[in-house]
Design a protein that fits this description.
The chain has 368 residues and is of the alpha/beta class. 38% of the residues lie in helices and 18% in strands. It contains 15 helices and 14 strands. The longest helix has 16 residues. The protein is globular and about 60 Å long. The N and C termini lie far apart (50 Å).
C-alpha cells in the first residue's frame, strides 16, 4: 500500500513539475495558412505580422506629417517590437513613451485627433484597455454625434495585442472585440496575418472614424507572408471568402480563421464535403451581405471565436443569420467559443476553440 501511495506521489510531483511541458501549446492549436492573394501588383518582401504592422506605421509617419505614435514603451519598440526603429527614424516628438495610464493614452489620442492629427495609440495588451473604455465608448465614439458634426476624432487608431499566446493567462489573453462592437461610432478590426494587417491598418489610419485595431499577438511571429512593399488599403467593413464551398459556412476572425481553414481541409479529406470559410475582418461594421449570401447557399453556419460564449460577437452573427436566412437553414447556427470563465493558464488548451472542437461541431451541424 505504501508503495502504491509513494508511486502516486511520485507521478503527481512529476506531472506538476512538468506541467508546462505537457500543456505547452504556443502556436500548436492552429496551422497558419498564408494568403495566396496579393492586394496589389508589384514587389513583395517576406514579413511577419509584427514587421507588416511596423511597415504600415512607417509609411504613415513618412507620408503624413501630422502622424504621431505613442504608448507604453513604444520608444523602445514596444513589448512586441511593432514600433522598432520608428523613434530613431522620426524623432522623439513623433514617436514617444507615455505614462502607464491607458485612460490618459486614449484621452490624449482623442485630443490629438480632434485637433487634426493622425493619432496612433498603442495599448500594451488588449486586456489593459478597460481603464480607457470610458474614453473610447463615451468620447471617441460619440465625438462627431455630440457636436452635430462640427468636430470629430476620426484620426484616432488604437492598436492593442489581443488573444491567446500560449502562456498569457487571465490578464494577457483576452479578446475584447464584443465590448466595443456595442459602441456606434467606432470601427473594430482584427487581421488574420501580415498582408491583411498592413492593408487594414493603413485603412484605419486614413479612416475618419476612430478605430480599434486588435492584433492577435500569437501571429506576430508565427505568421509570415510575401507582403507588398508599396502602400495599399484593404476596405473596412468587408469580409473575405477564403475558401468556397456548399456544405457549411465557417466564420471566424484573427487566429481563428486559420483553425477554420484547417477544419475545412479536414472535412474535405475525411467527410468529402466542401465548406466555405469567411474571415469577417471587420467586427464593426461587419459584412452582413457576404455572410448571409454564403449561408443561404450552404444552409449551415458555424461561428468560432476565442472570446467567451455569452454575448460574444458570434451571438450577433447567429441572430442576424437566423433572422435573414431562416428559410434557408438546415440546422441551428452553431457557435464554438471560449468558455464563460476567466482565461486559464495551464488549462488554455481546453479553453480554446481548437480544430477538434470545431470539427465536432461541424459534424453535428451536418447530421442535424
Amino acid at each position: 500500500m505504501n508503495g502504491i501511495v509513494q508511486q502516486k506521489i511520485f507521478v503527481s510531483r512529476y506531472l506538476f513539475q512538468n506541467v508546462n511541458h505537457f500543456m505547452k501549446r504556443m502556436s500548436s492549436h492552429f496551422t497558419f495558412f498564408p494568403d495566396e492573394h496579393r492586394p496589389i501588383e508589384g514587389d513583395t518582401t517576406k514579413m511577419n505580422m509584427m514587421q507588416a504592422i511596423n511597415n504600415a506605421m512607417d509609411i504613415t509617419l513618412k507620408t503624413d506629417s501630422s502622424a504621431v505614435l505613442f504608448g507604453e514603451d513604444v520608444a523602445f519598440g514596444g513589448v512586441f517590437r511593432c514600433a522598432l526603429g520608428l523613434q530613431e527614424k522620426y524623432g522623439n516628438d513623433r514617436v514617444f513613451n507615455t505614462p502607464l495610464c491607458e485612460q490618459g493614452i486614449a484621452g490624449f489620442g482623442i485630443g490629438l485627433a480632434t485637433a487634426g492629427a493622425t493619432a496612433i495609440a498603442e495599448i500594451q495588451f488588449a486586456d489593459y484597455i478597460f481603464p480607457a473604455f470610458d474614453q473610447l465608448v463615451n468620447e471617441a465614439a460619440k465625438c462627431r454625434y455630440r457636436s452635430g458634426g462640427q468636430f470629430d476624432c476620426g484620426g484616432l487608431t488604437v492598436r492593442a495585442p489581443c488573444g491567446a499566446v500560449g502562456h498569457g493567462g487571465l490578464y494577457h489573453s483576452q479578446s475584447p472585440e464584443a465590448f466595443f462592437s456595442h459602441a456606434p461610432g467606432l470601427k473594430v478590426v482584427v487581421p488574420r496575418g501580415p498582408i491583411s494587417a498592413k492593408g487594414l491598418l493603413l485603412s484605419c489610419l486614413k479612416e475618419r472614424d476612430p478605430c480599434v485595431f486588435l492584433e492577435p499577438k500569437i501571429l506576430y511571429r508565427a505568421a509570415a507572408e510575401e507582403v507588398p512593399t508599396d502602400s495599399y488599403e484593404i476596405p473596412l467593413g468587408k469580409a473575405q471568402v477564403l475558401r468556397e464551398g456548399d456544405a457549411a459556412t465557417l466564420i471566424g476572425w484573427g487566429t481563428q480563421v486559420h483553425v477554420l481553414l484547417e477544419v475545412a481541409q479536414k472535412a474535405q479529406e475525411t467527410l468529402g464535403i466542401s465548406c466555405e470559410v469567411i474571415d469577417l475582418m471587420s467586427i464593426l461594421p461587419w459584412d452582413e451581405e457576404t455572410v448571409c449570401n454564403s449561408v443561404k447557399k450552404t444552409g449551415r453556419c458555424l461561428v468560432a471565436h476565442e472570446a467567451p460564449l455569452t454575448s460574444g460577437f458570434g451571438a450577433e452573427l447567429a441572430a442576424t443569420v437566423q433572422s435573414e436566412c431562416f428559410l434557408h437553414l438546415e440546422a441551428p447556427v452553431a457557435r464554438v467559443t471560449g468558455w464563460d470563465a476567466p482565461f486559464p493558464h495551464v488549462f488554455e488548451p481546453f479553453y480554446l476553440p481548437d480544430k477538434m472542437r470545431c470539427l465536432s461541431a461541424l459534424e453535428k451541424l451536418l447530421n442535424y
